[in-house]
Write a structure and sequence with these properties.
- The complex is a heterodimer of chains A (103) and B (269).
- In chain A, 44% of the residues lie in helices and 12% in strands.
- With 103 residues, chain A is α/β, with parallel strands linked by helices.
- In chain A, strands 1-2-3 form a three-stranded parallel sheet.
- Chain B is of the alpha+beta class and 269 residues long.
- Chain B starts with a strand and ends with a strand.
- Classes of the chains: A alpha/beta (103), B alpha+beta (269).
- Chains A and B meet through helix 3 and helix 5 of A and helix 7 of B.
């Protein structure tokens, strides 16, 4: 299990598509090694559709099965207002997140 | 100058400053004798005006500024306009007042502004659940759009409390929404292009597809029954979600840029 603390790793930029792309690359590397990624958000607001879209939702565009994404991707302490934003951008890409993925 | 600078009912008189005054290249005298109030968006408009005049090396003079107006940083900068030999940093217009925050940014995202906003208006945010999140998301999307799409080297963002309303917005003087979108879409007029920009999946990008941010902004304002107003090129669109009123019109003067203004009601303000 590998934790990625968003507000530490992306302290200067947790908003842009470029930052989201970096996050997605990190997640994909972990998935290739069959490791669970836990995205840690410390109950702080991200409030960026671009970051969530590029970082998480676009996992749906890879060859990884959606069931595997559900098993290997978790979210810890996501801010309550970020949940609908994240779910909406993921749904737009055809990625449905499960409530078991949220701690 | 109108009585309330920033009041969108007077948008044409403000745009008139930008076009007639700047294009005529003659010295400009800003008469503030009628001005009683400058809204946060008015400060941002005046910052844009300062920059446009300085870039074109025009002469600007200011007269009859009341004491309560003189306190604003951008007004001081306009009064001292001739002291600036070249275009200064966008940060010179920064204002961190009790009820208004204004900052200029150049080519980068101003994430620190959001933290400052959260701190300055913590009491209002505590009494209005969801307001802080909505403002953060909207400002993130708008400043990202300015940085990525407008081609402008700088933009201005503001947050402020006026009466029982919380106001946020981002203004740039870059490539307008209609100019960007007409390369990809066909619409009848500039206001139609502005409406198009708020549709899900509409983007000017050829790579790294997007088109989510403005649509999400639109939905947030709608759900909170706020107001969003966009002026870009000759288009002017205002959506009042509480009263379900829409104003769509062509402006008398062109705006070479995009100004987005959002307003939410705020309890306890």
């Amino acid at each position: 299990m590998i934790e990625i603390n968003i507000f530490k790793v992306f302290a200067n930029d947790y908003v842009t598509r470029e930052a989201g792309e970096l996050l997605r690359k990190m997640i994909l590397e972990n998935m290739a090694a069959e490791k669970i990624t836990v995205i840690v958000l410390n109950n702080k607001m991200v409030a960026s559709t671009s970051f969530f879209d590029e970082g998480i939702a676009k996992l749906a565009l890879t060859k990884i099965e959606k069931e595997k994404i559900k098993q290997l991707l978790m979210f810890k302490d996501i801010h309550k207002f970020d949940v609908p934003t994240l779910l909406a951008v993921c749904k737009h890409r055809g990625l449905v997140l499960d409530k078991t993925q949220f701690k | 100058m109108p009585k309330s600078v920033g009041d969108l009912a007077h948008i044409d008189s403000i745009l008139n400053l930008f076009t007639n005054s700047i294009e005529n290249k003659s010295p400009i005298t800003l008469d503030f004798s009628n001005v009683e109030q400058i809204y946060p968006e008015g400060l941002a408009m005046l910052a844009c005006f300062f920059d446009q005049c300085k870039e074109r090396q025009l002469k600007v003079e200011v007269k009859s500024v009341k004491k309560q107006i003189r306190k604003h940083t951008v007004i001081q900068n306009l009064i001292n306009f001739q002291n600036y030999q070249t275009l200064p940093s966008a940060k010179i217009h920064n204002e961190h007042g009790e009820t208004v925050l204004l900052e200029g940014a150049e080519l980068s995202l101003n994430i620190g502004f959001l933290e400052m906003m959260a701190l300055r208006f913590s009491k209002v945010f505590a009494e209005n659940e969801g307001l802080e999140y909505n403002c953060r998301l909207i400002l993130n999307e708008l400043m990202t759009n300015s940085r990525d799409h407008s081609g402008a080297e700088r933009y201005y963002m503001y947050a402020g409390l006026v009466d029982s309303n919380f106001l946020v917005g981002v203004l740039d003087m870059g490539v307008s929404i209609p100019t960007k979108l007409e390369a990809k879409y066909n619409c009848e007029g500039d206001t139609d292009y502005i409406e198009k920009a708020f549709e899900l999946g509409v983007s000017t990008r050829r790579t790294r597809e997007g088109g989510l941010g403005l649509n999400h902004t639109f939905n947030l304002v709608k759900n909170a029954e706020g107001r969003v107003s966009v002026t870009s090129r000759f288009g002017h669109l205002k959506r009042y979600f509480k009263s379900k009123r829409i104003t769509r019109r062509k402006t008398k003067h062109k705006l070479n840029g995009t100004w987005v203004f959002v307003r939410f009601s705020a309890k306890g303000a």
